[in-house]
Every structure is written in structure tokens, then in C-alpha cells.
Amino acid sequence: MRETVHVNLPGRAYDVLIGSGLLHDAGTLIAPLLHRPRVVVVTDETVGALHLHSLQEGLHRSGIEMATLTLTPGEATKCWAELTRCVEWMLDQKVERRDVVVALGGGVIGDLVGFAASILRRGVRFVQIPTSLLAQVDSSVGGKTGINTRHGKNLVGAFHQPSLVLADVDVLGTLEPRDFLAGCGEVVKYGLLGDAVFFDWLEANGALMAQGNVQARAYAVRRSVEMKAEIVMRDETEQGDRALLNLGHTFCHALEAATGYSDRLLHGEGVAIGCALAFETSARMGLCSQEDPSRLRAFLKDMGMKTDLKDIEGSLPDASDLVALMGQDKKVMDGQLRFIMARGIGEAFVTSDVSLNVVEQVLKDSL
Ligand code: GLY
Fold this sequence. Notes:
It contains 13 helices and eleven strands. With 367 residues, the protein is of the alpha/beta class. The chain has a seven-stranded mixed β-sheet with strand order 1-2-9-6-5-3-4, sandwiched between helices. Strands 7-8 form a two-stranded antiparallel ribbon. It has a two-stranded antiparallel sheet with strand order 10-11. It is globular and about 60 Å long.
């Protein structure tokens, strides 16, 4: 079982392969990109312990040697110091301009290694092997790379498209249930922003997917990647439509800041809550019917996903402080906050025309 989504960007086109056994076949799949049979791989301790051996065997089967750098897992790794370490290590390994760098891990490794590849020798190619659901459906596709600084998340980076993405759905079997469900926040986002039929599918098959059904997982990853690819092909550098991918994220970023980017709230959990809040706000502004947020909330609850602010452990700032945190969002343009609102399930749009009083009331009611 293997599917291909082609991301057709002029001069930077690549395939996203989705299916089983991709680590096993990594050598055959990566070999056509190589000028010499050698790659460098960056991973983290958790993912490395689980999957590095399979990747190494997969590469060796095709006669490809690899050198590995293993980093500490967690968001704190997406920083200047680890970027320096990564780039200097690649230079120690004598990575040349025509070589290929491999990122094996979740969103942190993909973003960091992609950024390192974008600046190493003014840009070398890289392959994403995303191992979390969130990375498979979102961060490994579309070329956003970068690190965090003391000013905030993802504030330094580059658009650097991968040359190949291998989304091996077998590796999702090693995820903790909480991490898998967090990734579902990004999956449901796609149904909500542009494909009501996919949302229907998730309502019918979400439980199967969470229980580990590989076909259901592969379908959810493929449909998400197809939608992301379509949007990225229309608007690679987020001048317009790509902002739709930020549905739920204005709320999410405020909540992540309020919880100190800690394990109290995983990014995908914040996205799920943010989507529920965005739909509630849309309904209260008369943009969509009240049935839509109710249906979304019912789905999230059935899946066992976080839905409301009260699902976040510990205390949160009050609603007005959360609104103030939203003002720090990267999407602020000319001093105006931009929201992704919806006219219904599958019908999201970008607007600055949102009453912050309504947003504050929605947040209050969710606390
Ligand atoms: N994760 C949002 C984007 O890639 O644009």
C-alpha cells in the first residue's frame, strides 16, 4: 500500500510518498537523488532508538552509507545553539553541495534540519522522513523551516522545499496515544478548512484511525497531504491562501504562550481547541450555523481530544489576557489581527473583520 502526492512547484517539485514499509525501502527511494552513496541523518534520541536501525538497514540494502547526529528531543532543540551544532557537524562530515541531508523525526527535527540544509553551502537538498502524525500531515510538506528565538516560535527560518518526503505510516504505531491524538488536530483542520466530505469521513472513521487501522491512517495522511500540497502550490510563501492552514492557530499560539510552550498543551491539541473556538466565534458572528461548532465539538469529544480551555490542566490567564496574547501573533498585519473564520464546515476564509469582544466572550465561555 503506497500512494504518491506530487507537489508541483516550478523547479522545486517533489513527491510525498505515503504508505507502509518506506523505511525498509528508503535506500531504493533515496538513491535516485544521490551523486555518491552517502547521506547524513539527523534525528532525536527517542526517534533514533525506535527507527534509526530500520533506516540504516534500508539504506545499506542499496549500498548507501550514513552518518548520524542524534539530538535531544523537544521544542527547546529548535534553537540557535542546536542549529550551529547541526551545521558544523554537517561540515565536519564534509557534506557537499550536491549531497542530501535526511531529517528523521517529528516537526522539531524537520524544521531544524530543513533550515540547516537551507543555509549549508547556500542550500543543500534534504529528505524529510516524518515520524509523528503532525509532521506527516503538516510540517514535513510545504517547505517551512526554522527555529525559535527568545522573541517567539519560528521567527527565524526559510522556505526550503524538501526533495522527497517519506511518510511511513507504520511508524505511527510507536506514537503515544496522546501524541497521535494531538496530530489529529491538524488532520481535522483540513476537513474544516476545505473539505466537508473529508470531515464526514473523519466522523465515520476517526475511531478506527485512532485504534491503529493502517488503511484509515494512510487515507487520512494522504488526504491531508493532498490538501496541503494544493494550497502550497497556489501560494508557496503565504501571500494569501496558505494562511488558511492556520485555522485555529491564532487561538492556539496564545494558548501555547499562556502554557509556556510546555507539555501542558501539545501544538496539535492547541490546534483542535483553536478550531473549536474559531467555529464558535464564526457562529456567534452569524457566519455559520450553531450546528457546525456543535458538530465539531461532538467529534473532538468522541475522539477523546481536547476541545475546551477547561481541558488544559492548571490555571490559564483570563480571557482578556488571552486576547492580548493573540496580538503577538505572526499573522498581525499593519497592526490588525487576521483570523481564519468559517462559513461552514469545509468553508474557511481569512479576515481581519472579527470582533475581539466576541472572541473574548467565546474564550470566557470555554474556561
Ligand atoms: N503549517 C502551516 C503551513 O505550512 O503553512
